[in-house]
């Protein structure tokens, strides 16, 4: 491939903070960024899990830092940014991937669980973006990616937390793009469909996953590594003209007759 084309996707010298990156889609994206040359901060609630992902990245010649943090804690966003700066001296890319999948039917909606779900999945990304903002502005390549879900785009029976939260984060992505664009920070989102992560394989039977795959135009569900390309586009200079976008990565599930895959 031509050197100039390669350089568009090159993250060498940049630092990426990926929340919820010790497993699943976050882990795949973090490892992909490291392979593209970035130094990566791996964070989740369990330090041991973070360290395992760091070890995998370092075994491939990359640089990574493990930080244990609970995004429901008020001080977590500032702590994460401080740890990133202490470890690598800069911050160029932020991926808001950490989330709780806690959900409730309408008759079980209550203040405590509502506030907890919205605090972790919506308020925490807001606070992390604000904490990272001045450092992303200094970067010259500042990029934010918010991870959504195609569940936000259709009615989901008895789900009154997770899909509405992701819809709100999609709207916030557009507003952030307006507010942060003048500072040289691009803000986009990825809306994944069904991917074969530990969380998904524990929640659904293999029969259900096969049925979901068959309902998609591409006839498959995703491998976590298949999210790396879209994320790399939005994080790198290859996406320098893209901001305020929601990139759907779902094997065509949302255009299928069922609308869900």
Topology:
Layout: H1 3-8, E1 15-19, H2 24-35, E2 39-44, H3 47-59, E3 63-68, H4 76-88, E4 93-96, H5 111-139, E5 143-147, H6 162-180, E6 186-192, H7 198-203, H8 206-215, H9 228-235, E7 246-249
Parallel strand pairs: 1-2, 1-4, 2-3, 4-5, 5-6, 6-7
- Taken as a percent bin, the fraction of beta residues is 5-15%
CATH class: Alpha Beta
- Give the name of the CATH architecture: 3-Layer(aba) Sandwich
Largest sheet: 7 strands, parallel
In the sheet with the most strands, the strands line up as: 3-2-1-4-5-6-7
- The low-confidence parts are none
Q: Average pLDDT, to the nearest integer?
A: 94
Helix % is 40-55%
Rg over C-alpha atoms, rounded to the nearest angstrom: 18 Å
Number of helices: 9
Number of domains: 1
How many extended strands? 7
What fold name stands as the CATH topology?
Rossmann fold
Tell the overall outline: globular
Order of helices and strands: HEHEHEHEHEHEHHHE
CATH superfamily: NAD(P)-binding Rossmann-like Domain
Please report the distance between the alpha carbons of the first and last residues.
35 Å
Category from helices, strands and their pairing = alpha/beta
